[in-house]
């Protein structure tokens, strides 16, 4: 296995809101880090984790954990993963945002990061977080000294190839004043600029005084507003040691556009096509590689479109946690489309739905990715009817057969579908984290700071 970045072995990975452990499997596939602690309070998910990750101690309800005491008892974790609750953020929920009763668990995770100081933080949520909480996540991470890179990726995108859309947001955060490519021992020997001897990160004084770039040449903060900004013109400020003033920085921001919160956004695409929200939320991040890689179309003007052989027209509904307890065969969304339990019972042996929709191409593409055929989408119900099969959902999510559905676990059908619906497609998360970590590797290998250039949209 090739890992894109050198990571210290101390502490392993700590996982919160662990669920089925799929996010942690993706992190381990990318980094090689085993999960040593989990934080999961759901009884069914806890039973699954006890069987699948027997060496990982379960902290239970993370809101009851004393993280200061925990930090004193364990080695500094190499990584922390958290696919925190999306119910208040998702378009399918109340849309109350990250301050909601369940999605507000983010504040506990941020508190844990503050005390545990992991070298890397892997986060996951629905793509709607971009307009219902990303500003809070970015601000909380910055307040505790962490920078972040993020992207949105659909499970159905060509890089993954799943048979359902499942648009998700992924982020990797790291201490801003530390080099994630050095071992902790190397770095603690000589504090890096902006880092205290006691391994705690602090903001560099230059950044707080309004320099547009940090000492390493990478973008960090907008210039601090000054009284002269109201009367002076664009240019540089002697008090900022040659850094540009706020008026100049603002003129370099892209023009607001209607697409600013559309799907597919990330802070990885080039600055020439970056919408304003991505620049503002991420405080002018470093531009990096393309989204579609080798799957780009060769046609002129289509550099960000996948080639035609990777396109699949019709996709199954994505699994949801409510498919078990509330997944009736006639339930539909606001647009009149059946949810997965209803669509599954309307498929024939050739993956053709009763309304004529052909899901065969999507199914066969995912079969080719996983290297195994799709199981039957339904199973016999309690009243002689057919109902959605948890084994089929497990296959849709890319999990190993029986990881959640094995009878040895003793989980009810409802619990199986809930755990799977709350989970992540492993291949999707692994691809996103590889891309995000690759940007850090590219930055670390950069021989010299690069000049900032932003074109006005």
TrEMBL record:
GO terms for molecular function: methyltransferase activity. The active site is at residue 86. GO terms for biological process: DNA restriction-modification system; methylation. Gene3D superfamilies: Vaccinia Virus protein VP39. Transmembrane segments: none annotated. It holds the Pfam family DNA_methylase. Residues 180-243, 288-338 are annotated as: Disordered. Keywords: Methyltransferase, Restriction system, S-adenosyl-L-methionine, Transferase. Residues 296-306 have a biased composition (Polar residues). Belongs to the class I-like SAM-binding methyltransferase superfamily. C5-methyltransferase family. This is DNA cytosine methyltransferase. The lineage of its organism: Bacteria, Bacillati, Actinomycetota, Actinomycetes, Kitasatosporales.
